[in-house]
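ok so for the tutorial part 2 we go from a plain amino acid sequence to predicted structure tokens. step 1 is just haveing the sequence, like this:
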Amino acid sequence: MLATKQAKLNKYPVWCSRFWHGLRFGDWLSLLAKNRFRIHPLRLPLAVAVSAWTPWNSVFSLVQKILLTHRISSTEIAPPLFILGHWRSGTTYLHELLARDCRFTSPSTLDCFLPHHSLISGWFFTRFGGFMVPSQRPQDNVAAGWWHPQEDEFALMNLGLPSPYLRMAFPNHPPVHTNYLDSQAIPADERADWLDGLEDFVRVVSYRDPGKSVVLKSPTHLGRLEALAERFPTARFVHIIRDPASVFPSTQRLWRSLDLVQGLQIPENRDLDEYVLSNLETMYAAFERQRTSLPDSRICDVRYEDLVADPLREVSRIYQQLELADFAPARPALEQYVESQRNFHGNKHHLQADEQQQIASRWGRFFQPYGYDLD
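step 2 — the prediction. this is what the tokens look like for a chain of 375 residues:
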């Protein structure tokens, strides 16, 4: 097992971009100190590499602030579009589809992994730093690259805001910031600060592509619907859901892969099943409670299975229900992308009998309203 893990680590050498490369030096030291520097010896090269890089983030962050703060702060934000869904529910596929419409823009891997200075340093990394980004994501076979659409949660984390994703740095320690999976569980002052950080980031992306609506996708936003709707009163939301028999094992694989590649410890995967089960319960309880205040013209539900079966039909329905724009101009680009993905094959998963029972008993109430019969 250790040999298998080491082989996977060898595919992602220390110079490959990790989530922590985007932190400023002070935030990086704070993360290490809070976890008492409990770094596995095999991960010391990664820790050294990040420690050598993060001071540059602090320097470049200051330069970008001096040069662009006034211009960014005066940038108008067009009504954003949020994709909501649990991990492994098809949020990435939907994000890629919507990003094909040139009337939208999205945070890129560059924006999210280097959020402090991507506007002034992006030209360098996209031209000379291709070797820093793996060609595929570690958790699945999806293509990766500096300009691919990316989760804004990574940007918020690198900007120094609280995030459950910080758990991946020290995966053998207890989870952190789990209250940020339900915006109503965040103290009011902290929630305001977090929303300020998100709005600032959306403004940066809007500055790069002025006049375009930003499409944002982070599974962690699923339980933050109320806060997002309050801060962005003209925002629209797409909720995507998938058969839990696929979501559960795929999410297990996700965390095993990311904890191994991103972690400063060799993950032991203790209590992983409970972590997956309880996170979905928290997020969907918050989502179903918070969505009641939104009209159908602001939120649209999509089943992953329907999206895969007929992507163009489902995306067209999203445009129509949310009154986004005329779908016809976007159709050719989406057709081309759908055709390019015809040979894509995802990972196969198998559930044990006890896992099926746990999913039915703990998740059934969230999935049955969307037509999934867990019995």
